[in-house]
Write a structure and sequence with these properties.
mainly alpha, elongated
Length: about 140
Amino acid sequence: MPSAGIGGLILGVAGASVLLVAGIVVAFGQPRWLPRIGLAPDRMALATFLARLAAMLQGVALIWQSVVAQWAWGSYWSWDPVECWRLVPLLANAILLTIVGQRGWSGRLPRVLVWVAALLGVAVWIGTESLLGWLGLSSMYRMG
């Protein structure tokens, strides 16, 4: 992966990390180390804000990586396994936000889904290249 593409990786991991913080807020309430902001008066509003922020970061990460791919390889999207897997956390977060928009945070499904989306995001953004090496698949993003 070109060195300019590391920004997309950082944004993707940041988005997944923000979603992990949203999971902590949903499960345990607002942590003391997280500053209180006026935008979110209660923990569910804060979790929704964090999930939306995570979706924005993941979306910007994918756009960034597609621009770098166009610059480096001549196409924005080439159905590379790494590109396809990195779309999965954004789709999981979109499903989460859709369910939260319809039901709110009540019930077990949104609370479980925030953790699934967060852990999936971290696993995909950090472990995709290693997994492809283990499976023996080729990717434009793999070096060596």
